Amino acid sequence: MPKRKLRGQTQLEQATGRAEMKTRSRTDLMDRLAQRPPRSEEMDADQKWSDVWPAARTFAASVVPLPVRMGSRPNTEKRAPFKKEGNLELVKIPNFLHLTPAAIQQHCEAIKKFCTPFPPELLNTPELAKTELPISVDYNTYVHQGTNIRDIRSRVVTMKVQVAALKFSEHALEKFARLAANRYDETTGILTIITDRCHTRKQNIDYAYYLLTVLYHEALKVESWEKLSARADALKVDFDGSTTKSRLVEIIEKTHVDEKSMESFGKMWNEYRNTEETPEKTREYARRAKEILGLRKAEV
Amino acid sequence: MLRVTIARSIRAMSSAAPASAPDSDASVRKIGRALETYLKHSQQHVAMMEKHRAEFETGKRHLAKMMGLEVHELDQEAIDRAIQYLFPSGLTDPHARPVMRPPDEILPKFQRFTFDEEGRPEGSRFFTLSPKIYGLMSEIGVKTQSVMKFYDEHVGSRSVNRKDLEPANLSGSQWITADKMKKKLSEKFSPELYAQIIIAFEHLASLPGSAIEQNFLMEFREPMTASTGSKLFGPAIPEVQICAETNRRFAEVTTHCKDTRAVVKVTDAGKGKFNVDGLELHDFRHLQSREILLAPMIISKTLGRFDVFATTSSISASLPEAPNREPIQRSGGMSALPRAVRHGAALCIAALHPEATEPLRLAGLLTLDPRKKERSKVNQPGARAKWIWKRR
Amino acid sequence: MKPCAELASHVARRVAVRRLGGVHRHFCTEAKAESSLSLLPDAGTLYEMEMPVAKQLNMRTHLPSSLSKQMGTLGEVVTLVREPIVEVASCMRAVNKTFPTLRLVLWGPFGTGKTVTLNQAVHHAYNNNWAIINLRSAMELTRRVKEIEMSSFVSGRINDPSNAVAFLQNFKQQNQHIWKLLGELLTERDYEWSKSEKTLKDKPITEIIEMGISAPFLASDCVGALFRELRRHATADKLEVLVAIDDANSLWGKTLVKRADRTYAPPSDLTLVVHFRRMIQNDWMNGCVLMVADKKEVADARDELGVSRYTPLELFGEEGFEFIEPFLPIETTNYTESESNAIYNYYVKKNWLATEAARTEEGRKQLMHLSAFNPFYYERLCAFN
């Protein structure tokens, strides 16, 4: 049973004079307006808008004191867009009336007491972040027009680690590079772990830290079979001890090219073999090879 | 509607007035009522506009306060920006988005008539129902007379320019349409009247010596290609910039073809080098690709003058589905990718070498190709293809 | 555009071939002077290979197909002397009996003239009376093997009689200019090919070749023996040898030869491949090994859009690269403007460019740019204009 009186009950009471007869004008809008004009008309221009519209809310024509119009109509010269009263189009679109610059500032002021100041050292020298804060975690939060606050992309977490901060030994770094594979960028020295396998962001962040921990400890381990590693197993090729060098030594004895060119050739060779091959690097190789084979004279 | 009623009552008045005006008050009252209606509407409109203006002014003050601005800082541009911020609408039609504009701009105009003190309309053509069009017609008549007179006086004499004695030069243009004429004169008229006007214009234009009225005639003519216009479909011709380091001119533009987006930068005073995603021209092994890439240079006859640097990407693959997976590089093949680059290069060449703009436009190289792959439909193997129907 | 007067200088001119001592040369023991090699024309000029010589050197099959077709149409073999062949010639001049074999690798993008340079070098070797070991494509040894035979000499090796015979025939044809000299070179030891066939010690090495051609099942082993003898005689300064191998990186590529257990045999199991690899090794003197690194070994022919790398390490692979080191990479490039003009003038003179539009200045420019200065595309473009 509803709390209010039933209509029959009220009618009975009114007929007997116990209840007051209340007449309301339903049909004439002007009459009703005469009773109470829209709130927006009574507003003072100096009022605090965030008090009127403190939180997100659907557009209400009687509250918003702006003469906005909306709607596409044919022959715009003769017909203006519809006014705000009773305009569903304005109700349908989202509004930021609660997020005016003044309101945002007010919010910021309010939550300031919970915040700590940004480290001034980092403001002065942003490079400090590399050494002092070696781990950075990135994620995105998504806002929708609709009521949905969830987005599947918001679970993805990207963790970046400055590997230099882990202070690996040479052996450990090599093992680390093998374990991390393409997640470790050697040129920048940054490890990038992207985790998206769990459902929530929190879980993914935890998982990323777990992976980092495992990588670190596995890299530090020295297994018994690692002693067996041969020259062919190395991540990089070295000029010293290569067949190329031994062959070149033989040739150099005959051509009497000085030792210095051997050194510079070795340096170039190491770079050529251990980085991505480009035509420009091959040209450099040709220049050095010509030098070391003593062919420069022959060209004349 | 209003105008028709007034006109009707006035017509009644114009026939009845001379006879009954001195002795009877009835016809005067009749006129008075028509005018009264008009005046009432006019006053109502003024009051309404006044109300809207006041509303707009207070709204403006409210808006300024909301956005934390001073009222005098809030010009129309600032209002538009504020409305766009407060009511972010994703509707593609700009007319459908929320607006806040001064009522004088946005509300329909109220057509006013001019009357003298006694309530009579100014200008005797008021009673023809179409005063403007008849005015234009009589103007044409007067001009025709003066042209004929001018020709008769000056034919054979050397005091005037020979060119003035020729018919007006109307090549490459046409008479404006009835709709445009109506808009121009802001008056409605029948098709017959329009035909009469055109006949009168044609007669005037055919007269020897009508060259002196060239400007008057051109007011009512439009260029033949006015409908297409000189505006390009797709991205506009970019601005020429100057590289600070090399001091060479360059232009940059972003365009697309099918699913391939291309950012093209063309540098002047180059060697005719191409760099499309790190590929040179000889890496495009199909002649078709090379032909497409070089088409703007061949048409503008600037082979070997411009260096082209372009990077391409796939539009649909720009949002990776899975973050751990490398996004698939699917920018176009041997035709679409060069075509995207070609459009960008043609636009840049048009900017750097403006003489080539017209040939490039005529060759269709400055126009964007908007065609895209049609989406495949649910329950169908493709966009149009259907599964093979089989009787069970 | 060059003025007409200069056009004459671009007309193909015959190279005066200075035939040296010929047969008697191997008797002179002192170190060969550098100037003893016949000179190439200057870079940027066209030169013509005489038709009988081209026939002897089997240019019709060794040149790229489009060029050999053009050779048939125009009735002459005219090529442009470009930077790489000049460099190859200068390296060949440096070859001597004290210096280990010089290894050169021609590398460059598609269609820039790697094969043409190789054939020019073969012609240059012919002009200087070198012995020529020329393989049309190493890919034929690994991918186009029609019949196979298990080797009786080394177990597990796979012989390829048809390719071996074809090679020996080609060797015989290409070395007719020094056939007499080869006849005077003697074998080091007895070769027992089978129970019945033998080549005794101190017999001319041409006998080995004849033996291989007549008995296909011995041809693969004959190739090995021939190479061995040639290396020995070259080291003893009896003659100079040019080893020219096209698509040499296929010697370390993949094969289409199946073993008995239906797995693909690695290239090191193929007898001919092993012999050619042995020839590439630089443990002998007085020779020059010219190799071409070609992307056709690694590229997918059906991938129309992919651009694969054409650099030596990429194509030879780690193993092959370490095998051929130390070597000298020689790059072939696209035409420069003057080079393409030389070719254009030649085509105009030959009426190969017949249409009016192609003969205008604008046409010349368009041909140049539409071909992207690439020699292969340039030839193709001119062929249908």
What does this structure look like?
The complex is a heterotrimer of chains A (300), B (392) and C (385). Chain A has 300 residues and is α+β, with helices and mostly antiparallel strands. In chain A, 42% of the residues lie in helices and 7% in strands. Chain A has 13 helices and six strands. In chain A, the strands form two sheets. A four-stranded antiparallel β-sheet of chain A has the order 3-4-6-5, with helices on one face. Chain A has a two-stranded antiparallel sheet with strand order 1-2. Chain A starts with 6 loop residues before the first helix and ends with a helix. In chain B, 42% of the residues lie in helices and 9% in strands. Chain B has helices spanning 2-20, 26-67, 76-86, 103-106, 131-154, 178-185, 191-206, 214-219, 287-299, 336-352, 357-362, and strands spanning 173-175, 221-223, 241-242, 249-257, 260-267, 274-276, 307-314. Chain B is built from eleven helices and seven strands. A five-stranded mixed β-sheet of chain B has the order 3-4-5-7-6, covered by helices on one side. A two-stranded antiparallel ribbon of chain B has the order 1-2. Chain C has two domains: 27-42 and 81-331, no CATH class; 337-383, no CATH class. Chain C is built from 17 helices and twelve strands. The interface between A and B is large, with 36 and 36 residues. Chain C: One of its GO terms (cellular component) is mitochondrial small ribosomal subunit. Chain C: One of its GO terms (biological process) is apoptotic process. Chain C: InterPro entries: P-loop_NTPase, Ribosomal_mS29, Ribosomal_mS29_met.
Summarize it:
The complex is a heterotrimer of chains A (about 300), B (about 400) and C (about 375). With about 300 residues, chain A is of the alpha+beta class. Helices cover about 40% and strands about 5% of the residues of chain A.
Average pLDDT of chain B: 85
- Order of strands side by side in the largest beta sheet of chain B? 3-4-5-7-6
Order of helices and strands of chain B: HHHHHEHHHEEEEEHEHH
Number of structural units classed as domains of chain A: 3
Strand content of chain B: 5-15%
Largest interface: which pair? Answer: A-B, 36 and 36 residues
* Model regions low in confidence, pLDDT < 50 over at least 5 residues of chain B: 1-24
The computed structural class of chain B is: alpha+beta
Give the name of the CATH architecture of the largest domain in chain A.
2-Layer Sandwich
Shape of chain B from CA axes?
extended
Helix and strand run of chain A = HHHEEHHHHEEHEEHHHHH
Taking the alpha carbons of the first and last residues of chain A, their distance comes to: 113 Å
Q: What is the helix fraction of residues of chain A, given as a range?
A: 40-55%
Number of helical regions of chain B? 11
Question: Strand tally of chain A, please?
Answer: 6
Helix content of chain B: 40-55%
InterPro entries (chain C): P-loop_NTPase, Ribosomal_mS29, Ribosomal_mS29_met
Family (chain C): Belongs to the mitochondrion-specific ribosomal protein mS29 family.
Protein name (chain C): Small ribosomal subunit protein mS29
Main location (chain C): mitochondrion
